[in-house]
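Closing statement on the manganese (II) ion sub-project.
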Amino acid sequence: MTDGLDPRFYGTEVPTRDPDTGAINRALLVEAATPMLSLAKRYARSMAFLHIHMAGLHERVAALESDRGKAFLRNVTARIMAAVRDSDFVANVGAGRFVVALTEVWEPDAAVRVASRLVRTLSELSDDHTTYDPRVGVAFFPSDADSLDNLLALARSAVDRLGDGRAIAFADPILGADALERAGLERDLLGNPQTDQFLLHYQPILGVESHEVVGVESLLRWQHPLRGMLSAGQFIPLAERTGRVRALDQWSILQALDDCRRWHEMGWEGWVSVNLSGRTLSGGGIVDYVDQAMKERDIDPRSIVFEVTENTALAKNGEVVRILQELRNLGSRIAVDDFGTGHASFEYLREFDPDLVKLDRVFITGGDQPRHQRLFHSLILMVHHLGKPVVVEGLEEESQRERLMDSGADMAQGYLFGRPTPREEFEGRHLTGVIAP
Ligand code: G
Ligand code: MN
């Protein structure tokens, strides 16, 4: 059998599909994937090419008696095909090597998911106690190359460069490192991490005039055993994809309610904010969950604010709007988070009437040109016209204080007034003098 990726053989092969395994050969892959690539170019889509190498497979199949060898190869191919979509191409390019062309991938993370699936299913394969060590190289169109030959060569050299103990490599190591890191975190999240790895940090929200701590935002952190302290932005998007976010949000609610109660008992009268994901809201049952948790702790629902981003709140999603309204019927308030940066049009403000607006930090950071200042003021004016108070997020520098004071904003939050910190530290820094000793 020839190694189909050796350029010396390219062009001499007859395009064909193996009637036994259903895999195509390299020549047919080139015929089929070439128009796919042209379409992808034309419609600005991306594609990924995976080169799978199973060391020793070729020798093993050759050593087996013909029927058993065929059956084994059939099994390998079937596993690969089961791990990809019908619209993808699976080619056997010889010598224990396969190429998969993924025709519909939008981000490297999707290629990592398919590659991980392939590694898993192919590692389970054994024959007479011999297991194989499947490895996958990934090249991405258009970022890595735009000709099929180059993409196939890059995927192959990525897999051949792989060091020991690793199963997936990207042609572009930077793209790969990011995607693989996210995939690793996603695995850790799915692997049921101990809840004691999660904790809330608290950040004060101050009244602009009074300079008192009127509220506190709770922010979820993951104390990862290997990666250190991760902030919500680093794992919530993954948790949203895997559905795990609901359990995390529910845990955060209980924790924040417990701490809110503790502070109120100590004499502080502010509110506590909890960030909620759209998936948590639309999953059903969250209103009862919150209601019961508040009753059990004898918490006044008015002392809790739920923060949702524009993307969540608006989304022309009648269901989410209805659930937010139910949370509000309990007596709690709803804040729109990161206002001004979501994919929202203002139309959503017709459907949904928030109690509070948190202006994204981009409006106070960045330039201080008159134009920026006017935009900042206009946004605050608009929210005030709707009769809602505004929290300005992300104050970091002393120089921003004056702009804040001029802006008419009601409240502010940011490193300037306090970073998010664990409960004890938060109490020591921001609640002494407010709460009884
Ligand atoms: O999306 P949301 O506004 O809930 O995000 C809050 C995040 O912003 C937290 O992770 C918090 O650590 C971070 N944060 C809070 N204050 C500041 C600030 O002043 N500057 C920057 N860069 N980030 C901040
Ligand atoms: Mn928030």
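The chain has a mean pLDDT of 89. With this model delivered, the sub-project is considered complete and its resources will be redirected to Aim 3.
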